[in-house]
Specification:
107 residues, mainly alpha, two-stranded parallel sheet, 2 strands
Length: 107
């Protein structure tokens, strides 16, 4: 996917920030196991993602998310960084549509 062309790196690896992100991931996983997520969610995934295995992610998300409040969408032509890969325009459109629908639900 096109993200490789625009990929950038750090001059120094942000270790402290990385540790905070790992701690946050741990907290989120723990909370999802206990309570699940009751808020509306838009889940965008790519079959070409080489970082996250789509099948494992989908199984975990289906256990943790309320299916009545969740939309699962597969994007083609993207890898892991959906916001800058080939399907970023589709991602933007799906996001806007979901936000509008959720706003209408709130009335």
């Amino acid at each position: 996917p096109s993200a490789v062309e625009e990929f950038w790196g750090y001059e120094r690896y942000p270790v402290a920030t990385s540790l905070q992100v790992l701690h946050l991931i741990s907290q989120v996983r723990s909370q999802l196991r206990r309570k699940g997520l009751q808020l509306p969610a838009l889940v965008l995934m790519s079959h070409q993602d080489r970082v996250v295995q789509p099948a494992k992610s989908m199984a975990m998300l289906q256990r943790c998310l309320n299916p009545e409040r969740c939309r699962f969408c597969w994007l083609e032509g993207s890898g892991h960084v959906l916001t800058i890969d080939g399907a970023w325009q589709q991602l933007a459109q799906l996001s806007v549509e979901a936000l509008r629908d959720w706003e209408l639900e709130q009335g």
